[in-house]
Fold this sequence. Notes:
By secondary structure, the protein is of the alpha/beta class.
Amino acid sequence: MISKLSSQQPDFDEKLSALQAxxxxxxxxxxxxxxxxxxSIRADGDKALINYSIQFDGxxxxxxxxxxxxxxxxxxxxxxxxxxxxxALSTAAERVKNxxxxxxxxxxxxxxxxxxxxxQKITPIDRVGLYVPGGKAAYPSSVLMNAIPAxxxxxxxxxxxxxTPGGKVNQLVLAAAHIAGVxxxxxxxxxxxxxxxxxxxxxxxxVDKIVGPGNIYVATAKRAVxxxxxxxxxxxxxxxxxxxxxxxxxxxxxxDLFSQAEHDEDAQSILLCPSQSFIDQVExxxxxxxPTMDRQDIIRTALKDRGALIHTQDLAESxxxxxxxxxxxxxxxxxxxxxxxxxxxxxxxIFMGKFTCEALGDYCAGxxxxxxxxxxxxxxxxxxxxxxxxxxxxxMVSSKGANSLGKIAATLADGxxxxxxxxxxxxxxxx
Length: 431
């Protein structure tokens, strides 16, 4: 059901590399289809968007009005929620907002002795497109995690797109859009929605940046339109890696592994533990608990194809292997998680202690759940307020500064053979 490996087996490095192997947008056939869709949206706008929605999502639509959700509908979706759902959504939104307000950056300047002023101006992006998945599951949490940081950053307009297969609209997703302050919502998805956001149609405004996860068609489309618009990241399958000292209830660990495996068949769940007997207990828990899961077929496939229970020499080696994998979600299910923290160099989010299950981070802890996948935590960070702001350098040189800096600039420009650069600087010298 799930691979059992040992860090001491001769072919471990090879097995680990095979386990990590994943390329989200390597399919030429998918790329060809996506390029065709993008071309159609650019040429025919709303008409193509409607036709693709009918073709791929099976919706009944004759105009974009049929694929547009009004602000009144968003408010109604929230107002008609059960009290428990309403409270949960509101509390989660408030926690996400409070956390991300800590990330806000301000314009700053400093003045040098000669009166020259230097600094940086922080400006929010004007308009952002938010893609919310709607295929195998609905994700109101994704709305909160993408929209709220954008609003905290000061983004002027948020355009949300969400597929509705069979025309079925998830009210919790719409309610989340209402709470988060989304400005416009269109019930379209796939590569066609990404193209519409990137290039604009008669009804869908052209945005400056697109954020939010999706399937391989969405990921391929985001890569294709990058440069025309900004994007957050190319998201691969969800991942969880758990480092455990063997002192957590094995049922808890099994369920934590399930929590990511249930996303889709390509999700990855890995346990690193120095106790072989505990690994055997977790394996037994997996076998016993899996039949109780609603999405057991998806979980079983994910665990079989990309999951692993890995026996390590000690916790230090577990940390080393974790850094090699650079997981999206890392649980430190150990007695003293702080003792391992300094050694962790690559992870999207770190969940510390046995009571901190990854699911809390998905919904309501506060930090963003949009995280780097497929090893990209080596160079990427969680989505945050900083992703919705631009930085402009500020330079105001005094006459005295122009005299000293001008000589330096002219000398360097001469060395590069750029006469106009050099003369431009020399024109401002005191002589």
